[in-house]
């Protein structure tokens, strides 16, 4: 065990011992390091003004991703490379191609959001220099700008791509050296204290199991896209906190199932969905902005137990299961049975989600829907997952799950019953649209009224029918990268 937090910040190594569980990366950058190019706007991972790049080790090497520094806890940066806007430049020492293009295309006005936009575009430029407009817009989902209207920003991104220069980019040239330095930082459990606050960073899943047996009431922090707000908005004490965002990253596809480690982020899961569950890929791109998808994890979205979590409705409809672990003991639970009541899940103290198992359902008719006040980077009002099997024109099986309609993500049993055994025809879906009213009694809140939620749930059955029966009918906006 070591009491020292280590990470790289731009071109220097940082070693800290006085680190609290609630300390954020943004506060460290602005207050302790005076790197004030990184701004605080919303303090909830929504506006992107705080965007920095986080370099981390993966099984295939180093990657750099835009993340929200405002809700990223400092302790979770152990063994990573944090890159701020102050550090990027051209090989000659002048403006980076992204910065130069922003100037030449008038992509900045008040300038408050500009550093975060530059960092998001830098992350895209490194990984996809030939990005088109749709890919640029996807990369900018998590960056809000109230001045420019985005057109000059998109033009700047296109111009930077044409300018090239990736072969001489400092982060690409030094990637192997940085990776070697980061590997030196791993190997021991890290335990940090600051006053009465404790932060623990386990080495692997076995160490995590041991830590949680010792600290069964600890706050488990994965991507911190939710827990971060507990601190920045509600000033909650999360100590002792166990940081696990670097753990359980395995991805395997075999025997008709996708097996995801609980620590797989939305961004990491995206390519797997695109290949094996393409009907749901657009839905993955609706989860937060790019920064949120780079931090948030599939397992934590489940374990959180929120009735409006993005992934559970889809995963329940697909028949997903989860592996829960406490110490050396594992048990498998159908995801639909994990959610018991509002704020209550089938998980005991010291137990954690270790793996998510998702059947690919070959041949099934699958769809996922998210309804929110704005398309990008918004919280769900109603979410739904559909998975139907049809044999000889008859609906042989139906799994339909909703989020936002009850205190937990839940299947629409009466609507499913109205479908099963019926011809795959409009009349069956009209009947299901009526039956779903008896499945749920939604509440009204600031996101949507109960009446609106009920109407949406009914109409999604009709939409599913239209999409499946007339696939060329333009009933949804295409937003998948490359389309």
TrEMBL record:
Keyword Endoplasmic reticulum: no
Keyword terms, alphabetized: FAD, Flavoprotein, Iron, Metal-binding, Oxidoreductase
EC numbers, comma separated: 1.17.1.4
Top-level enzyme category: oxidoreductase
Ubl conjugation is among the record's keywords: no
Family matches, as Pfam families: CO_deh_flav_C, FAD_binding_5, Fer2_2
Residue ranges crossing the lipid bilayer per the database entry: none
Name of the gene encoding the protein in the UniProt record: xdhA
2Fe-2S ferredoxin-type domain: residues covered: 3-88
Name of the protein: Xanthine dehydrogenase small subunit
Residue stretches making up the FAD-binding PCMH-type domain: 192-363
A GO molecular-function descriptor: FAD binding
